[in-house]
Amino acid sequence: MKTFKKRLLPLVRMALGLGLLIYLGASGMIDWRALAGLGRAWPLSLAALGLVALAAIVLIAWRLCLLMRPHGLYVSFAASIRLTLIGLFFNTCLPGSTGGDVVKIYYAMEGNRGRRLEIATIMMLDRVAGLLGILGFTLLLVPFFQPMLIAFPILKALVWAAGGSLVIVLAVLWGCTSNHAIWHRVVTWMVQTLPGGDYLERVIHTLRIYRAYPGVCCQVIGASMAVHLCLTLSMLLTIQATHPVGADSEMILLIPIGFVANSLPVTPGGLGVGEAAFDRLFQMAGFTGGAVAILGWRVLMMIVGLPGILFYLLDKTQAVVPEQTPLRLARQQQSAPVFKEHHEA
Description:
Layout: H1 2-26, H2 37-40, H3 42-68, E1 73-74, H4 77-92, H5 100-109, H6 116-141, H7 146-151, H8 153-177, H9 181-193, H10 197-208, H11 214-242, H12 251-262, H13 273-284, H14 290-305, H15 308-314, E2 321-322, H16 329-335, H17 340-344
Antiparallel strand pairs: 1-2
Helix pairs in contact: 3-4, 3-6, 3-11, 3-14, 4-5, 4-14, 4-15, 5-6, 6-8, 6-10, 6-11, 6-12, 9-10, 11-12, 11-14, 12-13, 13-14
């Protein structure tokens, strides 16, 4: 029964995504013929493809390299690109029960017995950094689109929701890693009381290391925001290629909000959900073609992610290795004595 339920959920999610696509097509919200614009306006499509590759491969791979270094772990830029392409392939070309993030984490942990939880935590932090990047990028756009937000209160509410989400995520990270006495007691209680407290302790200690490396944290957030700048520009080029009227500057604010909805784990890869969200967002602002735009963008993502299958099948070398000369241990030890009461108990 457990196996059946485990297999049923991905099927339900996939059916939901496909059902949304069929509904959007039947209702006329998606004009499948518009996707031919990617071929007709091939210079725009090629530029958009380059921006997608820069964001989804180069910048994300560099961000992972940055996150590994404070822990004395080394992943070469080439190996990080390999991991990124494998994850991208499973996320875009084979959206299903085995998500790209799971496969990416599995290959990153390969050959690192004893540090697998630490590496898995870093990989999940990489995803959190992506979320912080898109929320931060959306809020940075707000001052440039005040008239639009005043004219459309729903968009203003969505921006407020993005700001609230950003504050919540930052507060959770700060609370888990803070030396403040109150948060220290809360985290210590969680470690001592909750099931899997030992694992939770190791996860939080992994996060605490970054307190000693504010420069790395700033670079990671900067890389994340650059990712979403490139993806937003690639979407604008896609709209210019697929929409008869072309793109509009006000779409710059709508696109990252739509990307947030597309990242919700309702359907595999946001299939159908992203299309519905973009279509609705564009309609609220008086535009059309939102669903077609993200479909065209998915085509570009699939093209960029296809090489991942070659790395998945042919390259089994260990991606993450301990550094020969670890970074200053004093900084790590400075962050270590978080749960002294727990060990003494």
